[in-house]
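User: I want to check something. If I give you two sequences, will you return the structure for each one separately, not as a complex?

Assistant: Yes, each is folded on its own. Here is the first sequence with its structure:
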Amino acid sequence: MTIVSTTSQPTASPASSPLAPPTGADDRRGLRLLSVLASGLPADLGTITEPAAYTVPAVFSRQVTHEERLRIEDPAVARRLVERTGADASLALVVEDRRLLIQNTTLRRLEDGLAAAIGEMLLELDQDLLAAQDRRAAEAGARQAVERTRSDRVIQAAARISFDPSSAAGSDDGSTGSR
C-alpha cells in the first residue's frame, strides 16, 4: 500500500499520479484503494505515546456510489475481515468522501494482510454489484423486447384497418369489424 505524504514532492504527470481520476471502463468498474493518506494518521505514530489502534485513512480510486457505501459500511463486512485476518474485533470501515476510514487498526495490521483483505473485499463487492447491474440490464432488455413486440402487433393491427367501403364487401352486414 502506498502512503501519500503531505510534504512537497516532485510533480508527476496526472496520468501517473496515484490520485489521477480513472478513465474509460474504470469509471464503472474497479473501485479500489490507492494509498494511505499520511496526513490523516495520528501525529504521535512512531513515538512512545503511539496509540495501540487508530484510524487509517485510505484514498479511493473514484467516488463511491451509494450502494457501494452501504455495502462497505455494513458491520458484517468488517466482521468477515476480522475473521479472515485476525484483526481487532472493533475494526470498522467508514466511507467519507473519497476516503475509507479504517478504524481501530494500525499500519502494521494493514501490512500484515488486512490491506490485501480489504482490497479483495472491494474486488468481490465490485463483482457482485456489476453482476447485479448486468442482471438488471438484461431484465430491462427483455422487458423492452416484450414491449417492442406488443407495440409492433398494435401497429400491424392498426395498419389492417381500412376505411375504404369496398374493403367491407366480404362482411355480412356491410360494416367493418373491429379487432
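And separately, the second sequence with its own structure:
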Amino acid sequence: MRGLSSFSPSHPPKTIFYPVCCLTYNTFIMATTYPENYTKQLQRLEALLNDSYKTYQHAIDHVQSADLKELLRSVATERESILAELKSRIRSMGGDPEHDETGFLATLQRGWQGIKAAAAGSGDQGVLDSCRSSDVEVLNGYDDVLQGTILEDTELKTFLASQRLTINNALIELDARYFKLFKSDPSF
C-alpha cells in the first residue's frame, strides 16, 4: 500500500466504510465485503440447523407416542426445508453451503449423547427436552446474526427473521407437548 496521506489529482482518495471505522487512502485495497461476512454467518446458522435436523431425526426413533413421533417428523421436515433454503441463499451469495468451521461432528455427537441419555432415563419427556434445547441453541444463533451487521441488508434480514419465526413456532409447540407430559408425570 502506498502512503496513506499522499494523494494526487489523478488518484483521488477512496473511502471504504466498515461497520466500525473508516479508512481514507489513495490506493485500491481488496477488502472483505459484507456478503462474505454474511456468508460466514449463514454457514454458522447452517451448522446449527444441521445439528437440529439430526437431533429431530434421532429423536423420532426414541419416543413412544405415535402423536409425538408425527410432531417430530413434521418439525424435522420443516427444519430440512429451512436448511435447503439457507443453503440456496449461501450459494447465491457465492459461498459454499457445505463449508463447516464450527465443528459440526463434535456438536452432533454432543447432541446425540444427550438424546441417548435422555431416552435411556426419561422417555418422551427427556427426548423432548433434548429437542427443545436444540431449538433454543438455533434461535440463539439466529438472534446473534440478526443483531449484527446483517441488519443493513433488509431482504436478508427479512429472510432470516421469517426462518427464525418458523423455528420459534415449532419450539412453542414442543413446549406445549413437553408441559402436557410434565403435568401427567410431575416426577420428571
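Because they were folded independently, the notes below concern the second chain alone. Strands lie at 14-17, 22-25. The longest helix spans residues 104-146.
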